[in-house]
Amino acid sequence: MRLVIIGGGILGTAHALAAVGRGHQVVHLERETEARGATVRNFGLVWVSGRSTVELELTLRSRQLWEEIGGKVPGVGFRPAGSITLVRTPEELAVAEAAAASDTAEARGFELLEPERVRALNPALRGEFLAGLYCSADAAVESRQALPALRAYLAATGDYTFQPATEARSITDTASGATVLDDHGRTHEADLVLVCPGAAHTGLTRELVGEIPVRRVRLQMMQTAPLGEPLTTAIADGDSFRYYPGFAGPEVDALEREQSQTAIAAEHKMQLLCVQRLHGGLTIGDTHEYTEPFAFDVDEAPYEHLTSVTEELLGRALPPIVRRWAGVYSQSTDPDAIVTRARSGRHVWVITGPGGRGMTLGPALGAETADLLNL
């Protein structure tokens, strides 16, 4: 088949990977010269630990696909580093204990470690904490390198063409297929069109499927200069338990009642996530903002909080912060949907809304769409 995929982020690229892998031809349109949205403004984490039980099978499938991709495309920077969620209060420890004893603990690779074992696994963690919930299934990729590496791999097959700085203006759906008109005046004939617009819910997306059950979420993150030593796993703090459905239960309810978050963390709905990039710097975040219009500037108070927590866990000062940024991602509001797939006519689908799990689930969502559409 001939596919036109609109949107060059992780979701569009993962769908191209699935389609080419099944023998189809793909023309891939991206309105920027490179993807500039949430795909490159994230941690690059393949995060198994906090996914809900309903999502776990799909998440583990995606984790396996990322490992396979990493073997074929070294440029994505895949590494099975695992993660440690560091707990600092009795209430957080109760959540970690429940997670380590849960029915899905083995599948997630959970193990509750005493501080000495935490430091043996990740010697950079010299700070104060009660314990660490280790997740061996968690992994990481290089979010700013992954897409160019994947596109180069796809182009080498001869069945993939990437057209940057190309915006799709209209799609004409007919009985025999669809025609995409771009802003250069070119037309692209297709048997199937997949629109992966990220957080662009207006414009062409709205014309095709109207209002769909998605919202936009804004986050703030930062990156340091090289740490000067390995951070052998990703790390998280106990606030992350509040935001991942995989930890839901009476222990998290008790954690919420305790109101142990700082005022800044509560106001900005914060958690600490931290991962070391291949160049040695740390990517640190993040915040959650749900009410639009979003601010066009970044707030300094969350960065001060993240710096303080990271330094407490590392037991040392952070290297200089070299960049800060904000990003916006698309999140499905249907509680039963991991991603929103909306059909427009006979040969056009809009696919968006994976939320903050787009990098984690991208390969599996692309494969799942291919299965659903019998590609």
From TrEMBL:
Species annotation: Nocardia donostiensis
Entries under PANTHER family matching the protein: D-AMINO ACID DEHYDROGENASE, SARCOSINE DEHYDROGENASE-RELATED
Residues of the FAD dependent oxidoreductase domain: 3-372
Listed GO MF terms: oxidoreductase activity
UniProt-listed Pfam families: DAO (PF01266)
UniProt KW keywords: Flavoprotein, Oxidoreductase
Origin superkingdom: Bacteria
Keyword Oxidoreductase: yes
Cofactor: FAD
Protein family according to the UniProt entry: Belongs to the DadA oxidoreductase family.
InterPro entries: FAD-dep_OxRdtase, FAD-dependent_OxRdtase_HpnW, FAD/NAD-bd_sf
GO CC aspect terms: cytoplasm
SUPFAM superfamilies registered for this protein in UniProt: FAD/NAD(P)-binding domain (SSF51905)
Protein name as catalogued: FAD-dependent oxidoreductase
